Amino acid sequence: MRLSILLSFIFLFQPGSKLLANNDLALPMGYTVNELNLIKVKIINGDKILSKQFQSMLEQAQAFMEIEPPSVIDDSSSPLGADSHDYVSYAPYWWPNPSTKTGLPYVRRDGEINHELRDKGDDKAFTKMANAVHLLALAYFYSDKEKYALKAAQFIDVWFLDTATYMNPNAQGGQIILGKKDFGRRAGINELRFLSNVLDAIKILESSKTWTSEREVKIKKWFSDYLKWLEKSDHGEKEKTRPNNHGTWYDVQYISLAIYLEQMEKAKNHLKKYSFSRIDKQIKSNGEQPLEVTRGRSLHYSLYNIRAFFALAAYAKQVGIDLWNYQSPAGSSIKVALDYLTPYIGNQSNWPFQDLGSKEPKKWELLLSQAFFWSNDERYQKLLNGIEAKYCYPNCFYQLVIPSSPV
Questions:
Q1: DSSP per-residue letters across 273-300
Q2: pTM for this one?
Q3: Beta-carbon neighbour count of residue 46 at 10 Å?
Q4: pLDDT by residue (tens digit) across 35-85?
Q5: CATH number assigned to the domain with residue range 48-240, chosen from the 4 options 1.10.8.100, 2.40.10.410, 1.10.3720.10, 1.50.10.100
């Protein structure tokens, strides 16, 4: 209550600026709209760190303003069995078979990304769209400039709604393996994990003049159809039961969609049935994630799964379920899994498992910022303060989406 009064008082002196309504609405990073509003107040009042990050954000938003929104029909060709509006991608760790003249069927080399093949699919375009929509929505909110909302809506329209360019609401053609008879496989669902970014952005865009009720009805229909496909398709059923990061990210998609579509009981039931047991089974009492450390890029996948658990805990909070503080009978938890990894910040070469991506920057700052917000544990703040710039990846404006401490 005091925070709401403070915000109202400050904004009496800020003509033209506006805050988001529905202060208790939670967004996937774990903060509420009230906290997002407080960040905006700090920027307006001249906070140096946030103002610098805000300018960096606007520079990236401007870059998105100057490009044409991508779509699934941008592919030069569609594989046999695919509609031009289908989402299509190729399994990233599969390579030509050295034992056959044709190179078919492709064979798996875990952790070694086949960039040439991957560039032919829609996954990079999808990620660009989702990141653009999220960033432009934040730029609209913090700057009060409608042009960013308009561009974000354009990205959404081209990818999801326009008759000529829309994507069919499924991932049936995701992660194709060349030489295999099946068209696509369940792992393609994982590539659409950034749908939650789009849902996040829409909640912000709803306060803009650009976001019409007609567009709202159409986009909800698309997401509703996609959720039904997740529930009923063979791909969806297989991905849901995966005992590793694929299952966790499936939950993130499922829960975020259910909440956006106001199907709260569906979200609660899924969390209770699947998400607690994922912590029990995927995380050991010392924090190690057995199914992730066996991968070719083991540190990447250990962090990747934790990112999914963080997002899942944030969504669970919206329906009154506490995953963040949950501890299994054996002692495993999300916090324990993160603490297992933090000794390797700036020290990735000492990671005890195979990791083909050991020299790649990791999203330490994102995870530590979220961990500090959730727990108010000073250990995470100290680790944040000691991170070198190269580990701030891919962008360094997390404080614009994650408060520096609980409010």
A1: IIIHHHHHHHS-TTS--HHHHTSTBHHH
A2: 0.91
A3: 8
A4: 788 889 999 999 998 898 899 999 999 999 999 999 999 875 667 667 899
A5: 1.50.10.100
